[in-house]
Amino acid sequence: MSTTFTGVRAMSETNGTPPPFEPYQLRGVTLENRVVVSPMDMYSAVDGCPTDWHLVHYGTRAMGGAGYVVAEGTGVSETGRITPGCAGLYRDDQVEAWRRVTDFVHENTRAKIGVQICHSGRRGSTKRMFHGQDDPLPEGNWDIIAPSPIPYGADNQVPTQMDRALMDEVHEDFRRAALNAVAAGFDAIEYHCAHGYLLSSFISPIGNQRNDEYGGDLDGRLKYPLEVFESLRADVPDEFPIGVRISASDLVEGGNTDDDAVAISRAFKEHGADYIAASSGGAAKWAPVARPAPLGYVPFARRIKHEAGITAICVGNINSIEEVNGILVREDADLVALGRQFLRDPYWMLHASQELDYKPFDMWPIQYTTVPRQDRIWRKDKMAAGG
Fold first, then answer.
1. 3-class secondary structure, 116
2. How far is residue 151 from each of residues 160, 162, 351, measured CA to CA in Å?
C-alpha cells in the first residue's frame, strides 16, 4: 500500500473542513472530529476505583480537542483486572468515581468519552506495567481463568480452563460492567477482544485449544465472545454505541491473520457492533504486542472498512496530522486513534488545528483564550507578515 500522503490542507469537497476535523456519527453519538485517544492503562486505580489521576489525565486529553477519548481497559470483575492498579466497573463506588470523570468531560469539553471493558484472562494477576509487564505478582496473586489451561508465558500462572459455570459468571460480569458504564455517564463502550486477554484468547488458536463447541474453527472460537456481545447490545440503550477492539493479526505462525480479522469484523457487525478498532499482536508472551512500523497497522483497518463494511479505527504508531489526514483522504479508515502522541502532548489536536490554520483559536478552552479577539487577529496577521 502506498504511503504517499495527500497534503495536510486537503479539504472536504462539501464543506471545506479538513478531513481530521469532520464530525462522525456512531449510532446516536456525534463525534466532534475523527481523532481518537487510544485506551491506555494507567495502572493508578485504588481498589479498582479511578482517582484524581484519572480525572486529570482524561479531562486534559478531552480538553485537548480529540473527538473521542477511550478510557483504559477496565475490569469487569476484581479478578478480571490485569494488575492491582487497574480500574474496574463492578462496584457502585467505582461507578461514582468514573462519574466524576465523565461529568468533567461533558461539562467542560466537546469530546465524547467511552470506556474499554475487559477481562484479563490468562494475562491477569501480574505487575503494573512500569514494574514489569506481564511479570507475575510476588505476592497476593489471584486465580486466573482462560479458555484453555495454557499459561501466557513460561513464568506465568497456569489458568483454570473455563467450564460452563465460569463462562456464565463472566458473561454476567460483562453485562454488569456494560450497564455500569451507562450509569457512570460514558458515551460508548469498547469491548476488548485484543492482545491476548480473555476474549482475545477465545478467538485466537494460540490461546484456545478447546475441543467443545467453543473451540476448533473460527466460528467455534468466536461463539463465546459473540454470545456475550449480543447480551451487551440487548442490555444497553439502542442509541448507545459499542465498538470492538480486535487483534487483526496475531503476527505469529499458527495464529489469526488479517483474513480472519475480516471474518471476525463481519461477525461482530452482524451482532450490532458499531466499529472495529484494528490493533494486533499479544496472543502470547512470546508473541508480544510490538510497536509497529509507522502506519504498520493501517492496512488491517483498510481491509476491515472495505471488506467487512463496518466503521474502522486504525491504530499504531501514527504520529502527525499529515499522516492522519492521509489515512482519511485515502479512506483507509473512518477514525484514527493515537496513544503516545497524546501522552506527549494532551493538546495534540489543538496544535494540529493551528498547523492546518483551521479554527486555531475557536477550539481552545475559553479559559485559555484571554487575549481579546481583535488582538488575536492582529497578532495572527502580524505573524503572517513576518512581524
1. strand
2. 10, 14, 44
Beta bridge partners of 287: 284
**Residue 6 and residue 326 in contact, taking contact as beta carbons nearer than 8 Å:** yes
String of DSSP letters for 279-338: E---SBTTB--PPPSTTTTHHHHHHIIIII-S-EEE-SS---HHHHHHHHHTTS-SEEEE
Three-state DSSP state, 212: coil
What are the backbone angles phi and psi of residue 340, rounded to the nearest 5°? -60, -35
Alpha carbons 354 and 158: distance in angstroms, whole number = 52
The per-residue pLDDT string of the chain (387 residues; one tens digit each, 9 = 90 and over) reads 333 333 444 445 446 899 999 999 999 999 999 999 999 999 999 999 999 999 999 999 999 999 999 999 999 999 999 999 999 999 999 999 999 999 999 999 999 999 999 999 999 998 787 777 788 888 899 999 999 999 999 999 999 999 999 999 999 999 999 999 999 999 999 999 999 999 999 999 999 999 999 999 999 999 999 999 999 999 999 999 999 999 999 999 899 999 999 999 999 999 999 999 999 999 988 765 555 677 889 999 999 999 999 999 999 999 999 999 999 999 999 999 999 999 999 999 999 999 998 987 788 888 887 655 555 554 555 455 554
* Location of C-alpha cell 493501517: 298
State yes or no: is 297 an active-site residue: no
Q: Which residue(s) pair with 160 in the sheet?
A: 145
Domains and CATH numbers, the chain: 19-356 (3.20.20.70)
Element of type H or E holding 176: helix 164-183
Among residues 68, 152, 197, 275, the one annotated as catalytic is: 197
